Amino acid sequence: MSIVDWPAGERPREKLLQRGAAALSDAELLAIFLRTGVVGKSAVDLARELLARFGNLTQLFAAGENEFCAIHGMGQAKFVQLQAVLEMSRRALHEEMQSGDALNSPRAVRDFLQLLLRGKQQEVFVAIFLDAQHRVVATEELFQGTLTQTSVYPREVVKRALFHNAAALIFAHNHPSGVAEPSQSDQLLTDTLKQALQLVDVRVLDHFIVAGAGCLSFAEKGML
């Protein structure tokens, strides 16, 4: 049955207008993005197939062009549209962080870091540089590594902090394994960075680990 034959209250677009986006399932939200299905499949059917193929939205968003376009009904145009939506979301969250004290917008910081790092296939280390009022000055991906580790050089971190005239930093990296718990090396790295940055009067406010749908804060865990 085509979506146009569904009861009005069950069609994704009408349901969103009546009840808000939060009331829709992942498949329904994805169906609105897809707009149309393929022969024999509605947009919702196709959305469900995509989610079954990739496992969840996170893995779908992380898919490369070739992998995404290999799905029947998908193509380069849809891939480009999806990447544009994701980048707009990142920029909107980054703007929200920049609009005031980052410590007063913990949800925006978490959401931005999860959207930035979730689904990456290798470890990536990111720094958010803040001024004395904890406003975001810049965000940089400083180091990339392998599936299980990233080499982080404190001297380079200090150089970037001085370059941005930062008064404080928030660090983040991902665990492609999906386990958000910090390792002993994660704790050692954080302590080393804190000590190195203290020498130039720069504070470390937090270190986040993004893994799957989780996002662990060192500050909240009392690990700073």
Identify the notable features of this structure and list them briefly.
224 residues; alpha+beta; 45% helix
Descriptive overview:
- With 224 residues, this protein is an alpha+beta fold.
- The chain is built from 9 helices and 5 strands, in the order αααααααββαβαββ.
- It has helices at residues 12-19, 26-34, 43-54, 57-62, 65-69, 76-98, 106-117, 154-163, 184-198; strands at 124-130, 136-144, 168-174, 203-211, 214-217.
- A 5-stranded mixed sheet has the order 2-1-3-4-5, sandwiched between helices.
- A hairpin with a 5-residue loop joins strand 1 (124-130) and strand 2 (136-144).
- The longest helix is centred in the middle third of the chain and has 23 residues, at 76-98.
- The radius of gyration is 20 Å and the shape is elongated.
- The model has no long low-confidence stretch (mean pLDDT 85).
Q: In percent, how helical is the residue content?
A: 40-55%
Main sheet: strand order: 2-1-3-4-5
Number of helices: 9
Query: What does the largest sheet look like?
Result: 5 strands, mixed
**Cα distance spanning the termini:** 56 Å
Rough outline? elongated
Q: Give the total of beta strands.
A: 5
Q: Please state the average pLDDT score.
A: 85
The secondary structure category is alpha+beta
Which sequence of SSEs, written as H and E, runs from N to C? HHHHHHHEEHEHEE
Oligomer: single chain
Low-confidence stretches: none
Rg value = 20 Å
Indicate the proportion of strand residues: 15-25%
